[in-house]
Amino acid sequence: MPLAQPRTEAISDTDLGPQLLRLAREAIAHHLGLGPAPAPGDDPALDERGATFVTLIVAGELRGSVGSMRRSRSLAADVVANAIAASQDPRFPALDAAAFAQAEIEVSLLDEPEFIDFADEADLLRQLRPQQDGVMLFAGCRGVTLLPHMWTRLPRPELFLAALKEKAGIPLERPVDGLMAARYGVSSWRTNDGKPAS
To answer: N or C terminus: fewer CB in 10 A for the chain?
Structure first.
């Protein structure tokens, strides 16, 4: 299913988008033996801890999406690792050179999550903001997330929450009491790297 175009916004005085997209593309190219190792450059923002998702789109269809929910490494290292992992997303055939030549890359930089205080499932559903929130759901030590662009495929809060439960391996009928949830925004950039418009 085609993905919606992400929103694009500046996250600081330095626009990281082109740098993150370049690092993601260089990381995949190097992994496939098509180029040198990615070089982060000297922007100090890339040394700060960050959490990103890298999504690959080929012919308008999702081909891989892997990311981080916690800021556990530098932004540059996070994008590189997630780009390589997305190219090998086990849900899809591994990206080869031919698919890589056609691939669009989307990098989403996650804002700091805000935990949601809720009494029950109905309360949680009321607090979710369609088209705006990325949502994390935690069951014990396991956490899953869906990025904000997934609202285009799951437009109602109950569908969004059901998809999160399914991703976490939680039965749909299980109430969310005892679980934790958080929401976050993203800054996203997407490129087709100069391919002619179709």
So the answer is: C
